[in-house]
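Entry 14. Two folds queued back to back today. First construct below, sequence then structure tokens.
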Amino acid sequence: MKTIFKFAVAAAAVAAAFGASAEGYPEKGKTITIVVPFTAGGPTDRVARDLAEALRKPLNGATIVIDNTAGAGSSIGMAKVARAAPDGYTLLLNHIGMSTVPGLYRKLPFNVEKDFEYLGIINDVPMTLVGKPTLPANNYKELAGWIEANKGKINLANAGIGSASHLCGLLFQSALKTEMTPVPYKGAAPAIADLMGNQVDLLCDQTTNTTQQIAGKKVKAYAVTTPKRLATPELKDLPTLQEQGLKGFEVTIWHGLYAPKGTPAAVIKTVNDALKVALKDPTFVKNEEALGAVIANDDRLTPEGHKKFVISEINKWGPIIKAAGAYAD
């Protein structure tokens, strides 16, 4: 009985101490690490670095660093965060891969629904369908004809298994009921570099990675993947795939913030509150809008709404990945 009592007292003391530290989060002089499960220089990395700057002030001037832990469609970085101490000092910023990894990989060392705390969606990023500069098609109608005439000969680049461009490419092929040869790269930058160099034919990638190339006419732009045209000056004249005949085609890449399961409620609230402030930071908003991204402003900004949304995305992408046989293992 005494042993049980001592254990209970000790447990209560630990809980109280941990609660107190959670209320003082983030501690002065302690660094917060945001793990980005992709290489530096890519679109998700850019969002993370801009967000880190915007988060510093609402998190009491905390030092925030980015840790690029890339590989296996973002699952390596995800596993790193799932194993981290649940104290709020290791966070994860991931894109739509959070919902597609369960379908792409049969064996994972974590469970997306059970091993993370959901801190809020950050933004929605449209996709663009672009082609190499020497492609003979000058609009989507001509592109569709070119694709039909060159079945079995077309190379479709992507930034790696599980990347946004990989998923958009799968959906595009499914919509056209045709197959293209996938050319995976280790990141978005080398993929679009080879597209500009006429080494591959097509790429469907985020506006965060293609806007400058489209504006500079370094690639041929055919469409955006949103229901309506974008307001971004560089892309406002680019038609949607839907208005050009590919009905029902819509892909938007989103980014969200996560913590390891078991992170104290006080820390979750602190980070969520800081995120809501950061998403209104004028510099962050300006940077995102310049790239065609739309800042989140709905119930997905709550931990509950965020998790509900990710689960719905898992249910959406699972069948598409299965139908394409796009397993990574």
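Second construct, same run, same settings:
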Amino acid sequence: MARQTHRVYSLEFKQQVVQETLEPGTSVSVVARRHDMNANVVFEWKRLYREGKLKLPGIEAARTSSTELLPVNVIDLPVPMPRPVQLAENESPSTAGNVPPSVCEIEVEIGKRRVRIRGLPLERAESFLQECLK
């Protein structure tokens, strides 16, 4: 049975590959294919870089972790009121069920990128944010 060899990469090569992945719009998978290597290896090198264990010349490590907090601004927006509905004789306003659910807007800005989601029900927005920030 043929024994597979483990490739050893120089520090300079690792730094070059990680540097390529930091360019805006660059895919780790594309960079890995360009160098004929497994993307998981490149992801591992990026993790080491984020943790400060792989230094890039002239670049301060971008330390991030799953416990890092991001600033969040909550902005109250006016909710448009629905047009009045003609109630039946035996219906009261409390039983009509015409109250719209609370809606909100989420805006996330990271660097030059901004994502804005409008019109989400409040409960859906909360679960969406909790899922994203895990």
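Quick look at the second one. Strands lie at 103-110, 113-121. The longest strand covers residues 113-121.
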